[in-house]
Specification:
single chain, Na+/H+ antiporter like fold, 16 helices, 62% helix
Length: 413
């Protein structure tokens, strides 16, 4: 491996473009807010250009087009995890993280509403503030994934647990946006979702025809899915999430295999993976660098929050993300254990609590939700600042992980 390749690998491994994008967005927005807004809302094809009722701006191209591939790669990780020998196979293993996901939605939402009642109960602002209950329900997939890999190690089952939780968590969050925060100019039209279903059917047919080019799946199934979601006024960035699982994956006997058997009791940490040439593998391999570098622009366009007034709403969002998420994820997952759905082998309570803490990194998705919940002053900027500050949870998790030594003894719980 040459020095350039090694440098690129380090940049990708530690999500440096994403982190630099957050910093750059904050710096530029606070130095010259008008200049920042001009960059983010720049219309490269003219201010009158729209696509399915949406203005084609830099922000649109980043959030609604580029992020399709980011969520697609996240979906690839989930699809691979549920294959035979994967960390979430058999599917019964996914029940526990899915229960944790529900806790990661209800916990922070309830925490937010309770804190809003404490600070604003009885005032005229309570109803307005309470409208932001969904802000702390989201998890920043990219940063949470990075922190989890640093805390647990890249092959620890807690990373796959967190990834599944984060992807489903954000899918629920985007569903919440569609239901509770509809765009008055673009009412939800669920009938168009049939086009997304058609994209899934087309992808299924391509798989049955043994088509091996991932680009065909994206061009046919992905485009149909994107248009269907966009026309339905539902977040189109999730277009590939329902398409990628149809890509042919690695063979059980050569790509993903357990070293000590394949029954449900096999420790997840003993699963070994080799890089293969299946369409599912090539999709990630050929897009990963593009997506990782592009996250700089996503972070820049979404994290530019002025260091303006910080009020009680900032505290409500931050506390709900940190404690609401941790308690919700941990509580619901432990309830699943009591119901007979165990944690993945290699995970114990200490790993679970840290996963809950890491899932409190709301940042970009929480910023998006804050923009939907509050039209502007006096609550939008303080809420966004709470979302930005939640990124510091990563440092807390890394320190806590070092103290309780969750990297040591993976798979021995």
């Amino acid at each position: 491996m040459g020095p350039t390749t090694r440098l690129i690998s380090v940049i990708q491994e530690y999500s440096i473009p994403l982190i630099l994008g957050v910093v750059a967005g904050l710096v530029v927005a606070n130095i010259d807010g008008h200049f920042y807004e001009g960059l983010v809302e720049y219309a490269p094809f003219g201010h009158d250009t729209t696509l399915f009722g949406r203005h084609v701006t830099t922000h649109f191209l980043i959030n609604e087009v580029f992020m399709v591939f980011f969520f697609g790669i996240a979906a690839k990780e989930i699809a691979e995890a549920i294959l035979p020998g994967g960390v979430l196979n058999p599917l019964r293993r996914a029940i526990n993280p899915l229960m944790g996901t529900l806790g990661g939605v209800f916990g922070p939402a309830i925490s937010y509403l309770l804190l809003a009642l404490v600070f604003f109960g009885g005032s005229e602002d309570f109803r307005a503030v309470a409208n932001g209950w969904a802000i702390p329900t989201a998890t920043d997939i990219a940063l949470a994934w990075l922190v989890a890999r640093l805390v647990f190690g890249p092959l620890h089952p807690a990373v796959s647990f967190l990834l599944l939780l984060a992807v489903v968590d954000d899918a629920i969050g985007l569903g919440i946006i569609a239901v509770f925060y509809p765009d008055p100019e673009l009412p939800v039209q669920p009938g168009w979702l049939l086009l997304t279903v058609g994209g899934m059917a087309a992808s299924y047919c391509l798989r049955r025809m043994r088509v091996t080019s991932w680009q065909i799946y994206v061009l046919i199934g992905g485009v149909m899915s994107w248009v269907g979601l966009a026309k339905a006024a539902i977040e189109p960035a999730l277009a590939l999430v329902v398409i990628i699982p149809f890509l042919p994956g690695p063979h059980d006997d050569s790509e993903v295999r357990p070293e000590h058997g394949s029954d449900e009791d096999t420790p997840l940490s003993t699963v070994s993976r080799t890089h293969g040439h299946s369409p599912l593998e090539r999709f990630e391999h050929q897009l990963k660098l593009f997506v990782d570098m592009g996250l700089f622009f996503f972070a820049f366009a979404n994290a530019g929050v002025p260091f303006g007034t910080i009020n009680q709403v900032t505290l409500i969002v931050l506390v709900s993300l940190i404690f609401g998420k941790t308690l919700g994820v941990s509580g619901f997952s432990l309830l699943a254990v009591r119901l007979g759905f165990p944690l993945p082998r290699g995970m114990g309570v200490r790993h679970l609590v840290l996963v809950g803490l890491i899932s409190g990194i709301g940042l970009t998705v929480a910023l998006f939700l804050a923009g939907k919940a509050f039209a502007g002053p006096p609550f939008q900027d303080p809420a966004k600042m709470g979302a930005v500050l939640s990124g510091l949870v990563g440092l807390v998790a890394i320190g806590a992980g070092a103290i309780v030594k969750v990297k040591d003894g993976a798979g021995t719980e």
